[in-house]
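Aim 2 progress update. The chain analyzed this quarter is reproduced below.
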Amino acid sequence: GVSGVAVERGLHLLMGNGFHNAEQERGAIELLIGKRCEALVVHSKVLSDEVLIDYAMRVPGMVLINRDIPALKGRCISLNNSLGAATATRHLLELGHSRIGFLGSDHAIEDASSRLQGYRDALSDAGVVADAELVECGTPNEEGGERAMLNLLAKGLKVTALVAYNDAMAAGAISVLADNGFKVPEEVSVVGFDDIIYARYLRPKLSTMRYPIELMAAQAAKLALQLAAGEGEAQQSRIYTPTLINRHSVAPLRS
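Predicted structure tokens:
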């Protein structure tokens, strides 16, 4: 999304990666500032609000993506992760499921805690007691989804549906379910999150929450260029809403 805006405007794109590590995130930002980048789109998950505010004061054209800091009103573009997970969980509840597991990320970032909270909120709103035994966490990739699903199955608890932290974990879970003789969605429904490209090519095709990251990134790039040019700040931060993409991995609870 950022690259598309840069190409469209005849600009060069420089990129650094922080790998969810505070010092590496700091180093990447310092490197870009040192290269005299006037417009920065920063996706920082572990640096504190205070550190990011300090950088933003130094670089008027710095915009945060996937982060909402009240002190940087108008310079943040984020996703309502809690609402997304709640929407996925409510969809399953509406189909009659109440024994709904959650496969979460073990990364200590806001996305992980927000999605877990959204799952819990939806259960609570429906009068369903959240069972901590139905929550398993792992690395947010296919292997992490496999391990989390294996741990959940090992408990021998009845689960008729799953909400996964992301599509990769959902793919790992579906593989484990198939290996253990469970049919998706006839016996276990699965909802992912992100709507990455291969979600529509899984079998069954994965129902998921669409995360409009490319749209958000393009908006962040345009805003960063606008601020760098001194064209004023937006009046409020933008919080995007995930939308349910209903494919074939979810079905009503069978009696």
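Helices lie at 2-8, 22-34, 49-58, 81-94, 110-125, 142-154, 167-179, 213-228. The two ends are 45 Å apart (CA to CA). These observations will guide the mutagenesis experiments scheduled for the next reporting period.
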